[in-house]
């Protein structure tokens, strides 16, 4: 979306705010997705290590629930358009 648009054309305030700040909402969302993927990979490694070392088989599903909550929160934030820079 460009900074200028023809008069009378409806705008999307969320996208306008993102473009006005100099970053892209898509880029911000991609960064959030990368963080979630990295956390998921780390959680798998932590769960495997804890299960192998101490037999804590409950840790993997507990971490998965925390990550799912984080993902839902980020999804709701993005849905409302609050994820822009």
Provide a short characterization of the protein structure.
With 85 residues, the protein is mostly helical. It is built from 3 helices and no strands.
What are the key terms here?
single chain; 85 residues; 3 helices; 0% strand; elongated; disordered N terminus
SSE inventory with pairings:
Elements: H1 13-21, H2 25-54, H3 59-79
Helix pairs in contact: 2-3
Indicate the low-confidence ranges by residue numbers. Answer: 1-6, 9-15
Class by helix and strand content?
mainly alpha
Shape category: elongated
Give the proportion of residues in helices.
over 70%
The biggest beta sheet is recorded as: none
CA radius of gyration is 19 Å
For the secondary structure, the number of strands is 0
Instruction: Calculate the terminal CA-CA distance, rounded to whole Å.
Output: 15 Å
How much of the sequence is in beta strands? under 5%
Mean pLDDT: 78
Order of helices and strands: HHH
Give me the number of helical elements: 3
């Amino acid at each position: 979306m460009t900074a200028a648009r023809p008069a009378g054309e409806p705008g999307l305030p969320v996208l306008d705010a993102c473009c006005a700040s100099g970053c892209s909402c898509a880029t911000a969302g991609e960064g959030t997705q990368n963080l979630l993927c990295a956390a998921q990979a780390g959680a798998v490694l932590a769960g495997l290590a804890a299960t192998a070392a101490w037999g804590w088989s409950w840790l993997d599903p507990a971490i998965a629930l925390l990550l799912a909550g984080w993902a839902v929160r980020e999804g709701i934030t993005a849905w409302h358009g609050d994820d822009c820079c």
